[in-house]
Specification:
By secondary structure, this protein is an all-alpha fold. Helices cover 28% and strands 0% of the residues. It has a domain of 43 residues. It is built from 3 helices and no strands. The longest helix has 10 residues.
Amino acid sequence: MTTTTAKKKVRPAAQVGGATGLDDFVHYTPEQIEAEGWLPFSARTLRDKASARVFPHSRAGGRITFLRRHIQEIAAMYEVRPVNERTHRPAA
């Protein structure tokens, strides 16, 4: 008799910023982020930068995943502000 292993269920990617209160706790894989186009990085780059502790991430269950706030933080890391919005410090 041959046994078959059950296929692992993959949770469908939800929209970032959905309506339910639990959306903040959904963990997204680097592949889901790449497939949805939420960040301009490949899954490999997301995983490498998370391992190097450049990108905020979660290691729940020993796997690199990203919460919605991590995705927003990563996007904010590459934001460039106009010169007139920068804070000017008076010369000492």
